[in-house]
Every structure is written in structure tokens, then in C-alpha cells.
Amino acid sequence: MRLNLFVFYMVIFILNAAHNVLASEITAYELIYNEQEPGTDIYRVRFVISDKYIRIDNDVNEEGEGGYIIYDDHKRKIHSVSNFDKTILVIPHYEHKQPEIEKQVEINYSALTDAPTISGKTVYSYTVHAESEKCMDIQLVPGLLPGISKILKAYQGVVAGQQVKVLKTTPEEYQTTCFLYDQVYNDGTYYEKGLPIQEWHSNGKLRVLDSYKEIKVDSTLYDLPDGYREYSLD
């Protein structure tokens, strides 16, 4: 009887230990953004960023209800999860050649000396124009969460690869210099300058950083759901 009890408690101990290994707390940063696109109301977006993963949820009050995005920096792969139809769009890292488009744009980068500092750091303006048209207007903070900027740049690089892959579906008359620079070949070079706190892009999308903080999260936050159909645009 004692042997049976010993075996029972050992099994419970092993199962608990395995659970703690598989689902442990990790350190991450939570960034809350207010975003708006032409014709829409402002909505909130939550980024939870660790040293290996990014999770993006639209509307922090309905986390994961409609879907979410997981970026795996080790695999350089994006998973866009739809709970509506139980599918996962898989976007791998596509190698692409960066055209010499920077020669066609004007980039201005300067300190906003009159702006309030963020965590004691100066805010900078980063703007891009092409043929007198504004392509992007970004306010960023050098030295603010550099590790976060690094992984966000890697994520944007994967997005750019996907945009390059589907570029042929865009009629040539819409492929302006601004469109190509900002919406297609945008590999997040500005993240090398600092963490954006406000972004405006040529498609009219606005993103403003509302808050950021270090938090502890369960590692399962970055898990993909079982039983969902995976597909890609290949």
C-alpha cells in the first residue's frame, strides 16, 4: 500500500514539474497602441514582446476573440490566427532584393527639442518624402527599449518579404515611389534609430503608443491553437 502511494505521489510530482517546464512565466514587455485607419474609429492594439516572440491582439478588451498574430523570431515566421474559421496564415521569411529606391526619396531625421522627453530621452522626427509626397512620418525615441526595437524590425522584415511576394497583384499605376518604399519594401529601417511612439504611413494608418511596461506572462501565450488549418500564399 505504501509503495502504491509513493508511486502515486511521484507521478503527481512529475506531472506538475512537466507542467511548470511547459508553461512557465517569462518576462515580456506590453505595449498598448491606439491605431486608426481611414474611415475607422480608433481601436486599441496590444503587443506582448519577449526576447523570442511577439503576440499582437486587436482590441485589448477582447483578447484573442477574433484572432491574433504570433511572430517567432527564431524561425523568422509569422502566424496569423483566425478564430472565426479556425485557420492560421503562415508567413515565412522570403528573401528579397531591396531595390535602390532610397535614391528616390528624401529622409529627414532631427531632434524635436520642444517635445517632452520620454523616460528622460529626446524624441526625434523621422520623415520620408518622394516627389513632394509624404511617405511616412514617425516620431521615435533613440535608446528606448532597444531590444524591442530589434525584434520589431525583424518582424517588419518578414512583413516586407510577404509584400514583395504579392506585389505583382498590384496594378503598376498604383506602384508609386511612396507606395513601394512604405507599403512594400519597408523593412523597418527606422527601428535602427529608435522605438517609434507615433507613426503615420502613406496608406493613412496612424499608430500612437499609449503605454508600455514590463510584465510576466505565461509562455503558453505564444502557443498556436491545436486543430486549426494552416495555409500560406505560396
Written account of the structure:
The protein has helices at 2-22, 146-165, 177-184; strands at residues 25-36, 43-49, 53-58, 67-72, 77-82, 87-91, 106-111, 124-130, 133-141, 195-201, 206-218, 229-231. The longest helix has 21 residues, at 2-22. A 12-stranded mixed sheet has the order 7-8-9-10-11-1-2-3-4-5-6-12, with helices on one face. It has 3 helices and 12 strands; from the N terminus they run H-E-E-E-E-E-E-E-E-E-H-H-E-E-E. It is an alpha+beta fold. It has 2 domains: 24-94 and 215-231, no CATH class; 101-210, no CATH class. A hairpin with an 8-residue loop joins strand 3 and strand 4 (67-72).
Q: What's the overall average pLDDT, rounded?
A: 90
Strands of the largest sheet, in order across it?
7-8-9-10-11-1-2-3-4-5-6-12
Largest sheet entry = 12 strands, mixed
Beta-strand percent range: 35-45%
Low-confidence stretches: 5-9
- The total beta strand count reads 12
The structural class is: alpha+beta
Order of helices and strands: HEEEEEEEEEHHEEE
- Number of DSSP helical runs: 3
**Helix content range:** 10-25%
Shape: globular
Distance between the amino and carboxyl termini: 60 Å
Q: What quaternary form is this?
A: single chain
Question: Cα-atom Rg, whole angstroms?
Answer: 21 Å
Number of domains: 2
